[in-house]
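Re: [help] complex structure
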Amino acid sequence: MVEKSQKTKRPDARIKLLDSALRVIRMKGYSATTVDDLCREAGVTKGAFFHHFRSKDDLAVAAADYWSETTGALFAQAAYHDPEDPLDRVIGYLDFRKALVQGDVPEFTCLVGTMVQEVYDTNPAIRDACNRSITGHAATLVSDIAEAAEARGIEVPGGAESLALHTQAVIQGAFVLAKAGNAPSIATESIEHLKRYVELLFGRS
Amino acid sequence: MVEKSQKTKRPDARIKLLDSALRVIRMKGYSATTVDDLCREAGVTKGAFFHHFRSKDDLAVAAADYWSETTGALFAQAAYHDPEDPLDRVIGYLDFRKALVQGDVPEFTCLVGTMVQEVYDTNPAIRDACNRSITGHAATLVSDIAEAAEARGIEVPGGAESLALHTQAVIQGAFVLAKAGNAPSIATESIEHLKRYVELLFGRS
DNA sequence: GACAACATACCAACCGGTTGGTATGTGTTG
DNA sequence: CAACACATACCAACCGGTTGGTATGTTGTC
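Output below.
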């Protein structure tokens, strides 16, 4: 039985709109991004937009979920999972994030971090979608952190979850400063500090 | 000759608009905030708005500078400057920031951090104003950090400036996660991690 | 021909900004 | 001090373009 649930149809416009959303919203922010912007960028018409999404806010939720999927796949197949020492995997993750911070600012910054700043108080559905994306990604680090702590017989202050969330906070904050200074280097330096914190916590010079 | 020429002057619409901007923009974001929103909140008319500001973007720049002034005064008069040991002053600063993270999210989050995420790529003037605010605040920490390092005969990895900027990155990122999770506690935990990093760096258990 | 996947045409509300005008203060001159 | 010129602070009504959203086709596939 071949998995042919998507028929021979071309759900072309939907994916093109979501891809456009990732690009445009990261550049202009969510509120400043218009439906026409997205349609133009995707090369489709407004009819197509409202065929696939009930509203602009509905697209934002879908875009956050889409972001979780695409970035999730990127991190899942990355090489930092390979080392046997769980601490090496945690450090490897941070090195991977550092390597991703390259090129122009809009290309490496985070969609959901950008969106949630704008809508956390006005649109709970989008906020929750952004939160799922961030906490879901942080959750992929918890087991490595916990294993690293156990292997070394130490206890992570605040718990493994707290440290995992902290890594995301540092990365999100690094993006904010990189945007303000219009320079990726500020972001890399902060991730470097974070790496040092983890190494100091786990007693590795 | 007192420079008090504001004797019989009316209550200034300009200040009321700026105060409103701090509140409304932190809640709704910059792009979603309309000029009418600000006028309504400040209790003035549109005519008054465009008498004091050439455009909405012009107000944003003024609001960022106003933010620098008001928060600058708040930190300048805080008690964390008192200790003789410079490291105590640095840790005191972080404790102070932790104490500020209370109440509802819109009340303790950062105006310029919110704005710069939206406009960094579309409005250089606002971006630069936000950057001045962040780097200017970070600069107030540099001397304490440098003195603390010298007093202990250690070298701050990346330099004192880099660590000062890192504290701001952590705080900005903590705000993002607090907004996403709709909970201030996430922010406090991240600042706690940051405090621990500084203590580990400077060899204090 | 039924139904999904689009396109075209259009709308009412909204938004940033402008206009013409008023009330009040201030500096200058006789 | 009075009279005038001018500047500042503010208001209410309005304008043209934009925005999210809708109503109604049209096309291609099962």
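Confidence is low (pLDDT under 50) at residues 1-9 of chain A.
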